[in-house]
Design brief:
By secondary structure, the protein is an all-beta fold. It has no helices and four strands. It is elongated and about 45 Å long.
Length: 70
């Protein structure tokens, strides 16, 4: 990942309190290789849960990724 450059569709589902334990699950939703660039864009589905496995937030993370890594 070269850069995180955005968050889309952010929704807070339930409050988070001091002392809560959070978990994050990322799933690749979309890959957009740019034909004339050395990087592409990847959109990730992000789900944040608390210690009771309740979804507390959900959003898309936008990243710029290198096509090759040296």
């Amino acid at each position: 990942v070269l850069a995180n450059y955005g968050v889309d569709n952010l929704r807070f589902m339930t409050p988070v309190y001091a002392g809560d334990t959070l978990g994050v699950q990322l799933t690749c939703k979309e890959i957009n290789p740019r034909a004339n660039a050395e990087h592409g864009e990847v959109r990730w589905d992000c789900i944040v849960t608390n210690q009771r496995d309740e979804v507390v937030a959900q959003y898309d993370v936008l990243t710029m990724v290198a096509k090759t890594w040296e």
